[in-house]
Task: structure prediction
Amino acid sequence: MEYFHVDVFSNEILSGNGLTVVFCNEELEDNLMLKLTQEFKQFETIFVRRIDDSIFNARIFTVDEELDFAGHPILGAAATIHSHIVRNEEDIAITFQLNQKTIIVNSKKIEEYYEVQMNQGKAEFLCEVSKEKRNKYVHALNLSEENLSEEFPMEVVSTGLPYLLVPLTSGIENAKIISSKFEEMLKEVGAKFAYIFDVNYIEGRTWDNQGNVEDVATGSAAGPLGAYLYKHNIFNVGHEIIINQGRFVGRPSKIKVSMSISEKEILVSGEVAILAKGTILL
Result:
């Protein structure tokens, strides 16, 4: 099996959010995919298998579990397919069949990198956290009530993976998960992860729920955040949003979000650079 190391949300190698893309000729066992992901030690690894000319099955794993959806693996896989399978085309469209949804992705070659856009569909606004309950989430993130925006709500939003969005006006540099029960707290509001963001600078951060690893750039959170920013009129529909992430782990990245005016669907875009390839001897 061939695999590739790529960097997503950057047009240069050794920056942005790293990813392993594995091309499979047949369906692999779940445990094997998890072990391979743990071996690569990337935040996420995506396993793709061709179904038809432009249709691919995709399975996404972290070192702990399988995810039904994640953003930067889809973008990175599309660019890799463009680079090494459909290399003669300047623009391509790819359909990914995930566990619970289908994603259409467009890729365009630009010099030594790729500009890739995915349609995450319409956002689901699942719930707002009451003012009485917000403080426990703020404290679990090593923050105080003074850091939290008074104007905008703490809200759970999903375009495939539900995030608790935590709007801040200060203190983003101090944020970290300090509660051992944070995952259980998120389940109370139907969220898988938390994504904190500064409403003034549109900069975000997120971690695994144990707080051990900070993600560099999170496409699955960018869609919900973009939908939130449009809903609460922080940006007008038709205006492209640029989300900054990764500064605190030395890999500054930019994620672009827009909304189709007619369908109200969320579009997430990023640049992808191909770093390396290899062979799995199985």
The chain has five helices and 16 strands.
